[in-house]
């Protein structure tokens, strides 16, 4: 079930000056005494807010029609917003949130966990349809009216008619780049990622340099420590960094185009549309609102909130952004050095997020239980990405779309393997090559509209490696001649162990093995931390808690000479915790080993 929306809230002032407050996705304009304007991040805070850049000059560049139909459409839009505002339904919740991020005169905080907003009034839905009809008449009378084109797309999207929005954008005959931008917005909201990207490419090619520079500026999503160096570059010189950062921020590389880039550009488009006409907040449209929308998205629902019968202040107008929303930006360390990033460098629920985004193709996003193992192929390395979908992820029934991707140091995809009819667990294999890469293992559940992912840098196996990583398998005989490809469908898919269950283990040996030169193989699991009593019980052979798995056998090689090896074992009932699972190979002249931490979970 989709989580409820993030909110943006404004409170009006009836005095000479006003100040705004946005909290956990809530922006509030509070009452102040004359000449006491300031941002109120917390009670009693009177420090001046940081400056905000002026609104985009894109609005001044666009044209407005002069026909009678265009004039009537503007009056109808104004009347619609006044009526919407006057009849907003009340919403109770989130009034006591605290400021997370201050932008100009606005404070923002994330309310991903709030209850949903009230349903929109039925009469308002009918009136919006009438407004769309009026706008369509105005567009027919003057197809070059950029204002009418923008409003047609805006209200069609609000009415949840993306097909109408796409048609309206394509009927736009005004400023070329603006029409292309509206098309990109409508296609993006419709999850037509490649088409939206192409429309935005067309817009960027023809728009004025000043607008292009503003819309492609990714500083709102970057850590503040990178702003100075980024600002020192010309707009054209920023292009490689923009592409790299937005690729790292793309939720799923499974998609045919970068929806994070499309979302950033869409936020600029809708901010221009909002700046051209009345919005439910009914307030002066300065640079603070676009700044909030570029970072956290635009509202898709509206309501009203009061502080109580005894509160003299006017009701608050609340704009609800779609949720669940996530921070898809990697950490500063990963931005500086992508090839050393770990899975922890992507924290979708990070506090103090520089951006948040609610993908429309997936109403939920989770970390993916996984195992990534490396194997030699000549001088190169291949990676096996194993996944396991758990009940608590609510991924719905199979089939799933699974992808394993490798990107180089500039975050260009160098290899990929995609399964479009995948089960709940298994493994997919793709080349890594001889250089480090960023590996992204992704699962998309079309039926449940949910996604899961892990993204991390992976180093190739060193030259001279004698044993591969290991891959855990579900129970079952792997046969006398196992291969990575043959066991991939039986991959367990994570490092979480269920006590009392049988498992398989696959690895590869890259040294000559024969009856005349055998290897002694030991498979052992050892608890990494244990109490004194557990260690004592293990020493007295009264407990298997310290060493739940201990297998030893002689490997005389395979008749076909291939490197694959597999063994089965049962993990006994032992206390929860971390265990080191190790395969050790002892030959005449060397000892080689490969290890993996596994976790025994308690009751769920």
Protein architecture, described:
Helices cover 27% and strands 25% of the residues. It has 604 residues and is of the alpha+beta class. 43% of the residues are buried. It has three domains: 6-321, no CATH class; 362-463, Sandwich (Immunoglobulin-like), CATH 2.60.40.10; 466-604, Macroglobulin (MG2) domain (Immunoglobulin-like). It is elongated, with a radius of gyration of 29 Å. Strand 9 and strand 10 form a beta hairpin. The strands form seven sheets. Strands 8-15-14-11-12 form a five-stranded mixed beta sheet, with no helix packed on it. Strands 17-23-22-19-20 form a five-stranded mixed beta sheet, with no helix packed on it.
Number of strands: 23
| Main beta-sheet strand count, sense and barrel state | 5 strands, mixed
Structural class: alpha+beta
Rg value: 29 Å
**Low-pLDDT stretches:** 1-54
Q: Treating each run of at least 4 consecutive H or I residues as one helix, how many helices?
A: 15
> Which strand-content bin applies to the residues?
25-35%
Q: Provide mean pLDDT, rounded.
A: 85
Helix content: 25-40%
Please give the alpha-carbon distance between the first and last residues.
21 Å
Reading side by side through the largest sheet, how are the strands ordered? 8-15-14-11-12
Shape call: elongated
Overall number of domains: 3
């Amino acid at each position: 079930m989709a989580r409820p929306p993030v909110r943006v809230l404004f409170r009006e002032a009836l005095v000479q000056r006003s100040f705004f407050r946005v909290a956990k996705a809530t922006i509030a304009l509070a009452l102040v005494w004359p000449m006491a304007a300031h941002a109120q991040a917390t009670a009693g805070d009177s420090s001046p807010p940081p400056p905000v850049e002026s609104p985009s000059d894109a609005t001044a560049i666009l044209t407005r029609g002069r026909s009678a139909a265009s004039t009537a459409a503007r009056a109808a839009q104004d009347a619609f917003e006044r009526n919407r505002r006057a009849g907003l339904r009340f919403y109770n919740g989130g009034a006591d949130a605290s400021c997370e991020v201050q932008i100009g005169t606005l404070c923002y905080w994330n309310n991903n966990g709030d209850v949903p907003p009230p349903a929109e009034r039925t009469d308002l839905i009918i009136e919006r349809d009438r407004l769309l009809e009026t706008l369509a008449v105005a567009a027919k009378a003057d197809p070059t009216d950029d204002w009418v084109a923008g409003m047609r797309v805006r209200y069609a999207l609000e009415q949840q008619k993306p097909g109408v929005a796409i048609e309206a954008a394509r009927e736009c005959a005004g400023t070329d780049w603006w029409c292309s931008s509206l098309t990109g917005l409508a296609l993006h909201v419709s999850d037509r990622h490649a088409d939206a990207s192409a429309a935005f490419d067309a817009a960027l090619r023809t728009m004025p340099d000043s607008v292009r520079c503003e819309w492609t500026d990714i500083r709102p999503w970057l850590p503040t420590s990178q702003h100075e160096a980024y600002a020192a570059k010309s707009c054209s010189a920023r292009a490689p960094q923009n592409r790299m950062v937005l690729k790292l921020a793309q939720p799923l590389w499974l998609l045919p185009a970068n929806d994070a880039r499309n979302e950033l550009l869409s936020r600029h488009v809708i901010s221009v549309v909002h700046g051209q006409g009345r919005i439910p907040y009914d307030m002066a449209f300065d640079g603070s609102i676009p700044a909030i929308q570029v970072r956290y998205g635009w509202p898709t629902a509206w309501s009203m909130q009061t502080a109580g019968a005894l509160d003299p202040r006017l009701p608050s107008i609340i704009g609800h952004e779609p949720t669940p929303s996530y921070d898809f930006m990697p950490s500063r360390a990963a931005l500086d050095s992508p090839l050393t990033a770990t899975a922890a460098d992507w924290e979708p629920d990070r506090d103090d997020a520089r951006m948040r985004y609610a993908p429309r193709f997936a109403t939920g996003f989770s970390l993916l239980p996984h195992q990534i193992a490396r194997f030699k192929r000549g001088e190169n390395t291949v990676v096996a990405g194993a996944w396991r979908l758990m009940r608590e992820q609510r991924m719905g029934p199979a089939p799933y779309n699974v992808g394993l991707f490798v990107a180089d140091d500039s975050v260009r995809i160098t290899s990929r393997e995609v399964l479009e009819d995948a089960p709940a667990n298994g493994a997919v294999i793709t080349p890594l090559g001889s250089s480090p890469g960023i590996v992204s293992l992704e699962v998309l559940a079309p039926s449940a509209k949910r996604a899961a992912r892990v993204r991390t840098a992976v180093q190739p196996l060193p030259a001279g490696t004698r044993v591969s990583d290991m891959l855990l398998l579900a129970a079952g005989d792997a046969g006398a001649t196992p291969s990575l490809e043959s066991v991939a469908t039986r991959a367990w898919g994570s490092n979480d162990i269920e006590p009392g269950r049988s498992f398989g283990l696959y690895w590869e040996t890259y040294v000559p093995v024969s009856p005349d030169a055998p290897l002694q193989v030991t498979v052992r699991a050892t608890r990494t931390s244990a109490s004194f009593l557990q260690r004592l019980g293990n020493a007295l052979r009264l407990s298997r808690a310290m060493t739940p798995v201990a297998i030893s056998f002689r490997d005389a090689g395979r008749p076909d000479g291939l490197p694959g090896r597999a063994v089965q074992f049962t993990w006994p009932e032992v206390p929860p915790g971390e265990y080191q699972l190790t395969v050790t190979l002892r030959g005449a002249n060397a000892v080689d080993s490969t290890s993996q931490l596994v976790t025994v979970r308690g009751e769920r």
